[in-house]
Design goal:
Elements (H helix, E strand, L loop, with lengths): L27 H10 L4 H13 L9 H8 L3 H7 L3 H17 L11 H16 L3 H11 L3 H21 L9 H20 L7 H27 L1 H12 L23
Helix pairs in contact: 2-3, 2-5, 2-7, 5-6, 5-8, 6-10, 8-9, 9-10
């Protein structure tokens, strides 16, 4: 059965009909409007706000209220996200971690460990580049602040555990901690050069990183040799510990809280 033809309205809505809305739900125009009204991740907004402030004024002049205002957050919202200004700075490390870890490193699988680590750490420096002016000011302000340096070392240990994993280098076992701390120190020394290296090719920075990685390899080889030589003594020590009565062993306890080391800054 044939249907009656639709009346020609000349492109205008019929009387009593619904006017056109300028785009159907799910259209590009509608999606763009939704994107404009969506709020950014508040944690990242706070970190980005701190970096903008730190690029323009001394670190010690920045208050948590300044960070909240710059990020468009209330103090209550900022407090729910971070316990201190230092913790906001520590949040930058997570942002950098994610940028590095999102890059596929499968093409490095057949390269030597030294080359894999070099590539991962250079990618980390690339991810840090937009924040270089702020980091230069912060590094100058915290230089000589032992407590802040210790807190940042804790943050760096968490980050570089993942950097080593991305490079296919294990951090577990007797030498794992030494390997991890050595990488943190090597990268920190490289960052000192990078902050003053304005050459787009970063020749000085790459040379420094290569030297630090090679030095770390030498230290690890010596540590591994020492571990093999002391293996009988360590076995004797374990045997003596196992003979202790359970009542002589001091139990360990913890509150189970996941503490942010950067909160101490």
């Amino acid at each position: 059965m044939d249907t009656a033809p639709e009346p020609d309205t000349g492109g205008k809505p019929e009387t009593g009909g619904k006017p056109e809305t300028g785009g159907k739900p799910g259209s590009a125009q509608s999606g763009k409007a939704q994107a404009n009204t969506s709020k950014p991740n508040p944690r990242e907004a706070a970190v980005e706000a701190l970096m903008r402030l730190a690029a323009e004024q001394p670190w010690n002049d920045i208050e948590i209220g300044d960070i909240a205002r710059e990020a468009g957050l209330s103090l209550a919202e900022l407090r729910d996200l971070f316990p201190s200004k230092g913790a906001v700075l520590g949040g930058l490390s997570r942002i950098i971690d994610r940028k590095v870890l999102e890059v596929d490193t499968a093409d490095l699988a057949d390269e030597p460990a030294r080359e894999r680590l070099f590539d991962v750490l250079m990618r980390r420096l690339d991810a840090m580049t937009p924040y270089k002016p702020a980091l230069r000011r912060i590094a100058f302000a915290l230089r000589g602040d032992v407590l802040s340096m210790l807190a940042l070392n804790g943050v760096a240990l968490n980050s570089h555990r993942y950097m080593l994993a991305a490079a296919g280098i294990d951090t577990e076992g007797p030498l794992g901690r030494l390997k991890l701390q050595g990488t943190v120190i090597a990268f920190a020394r490289t960052v000192e050069v990078w902050l003053d290296d304005d050459d787009p090719a970063l020749a000085r920075t790459m040379a420094k990183l290569d030297r630090e990685i090679r030095r770390g390899e030498t230290i690890m080889e010596r540590a591994d040799d020492a571990r093999r030589l002391t293996a009988p003594l360590r076995a004797l020590g374990r045997a003596l510990m196992e003979r202790r009565s359970p009542r002589d062993r001091t139990p360990t306890s913890g509150d189970g809280e996941d503490r942010d080391p950067a909160a101490a800054i």
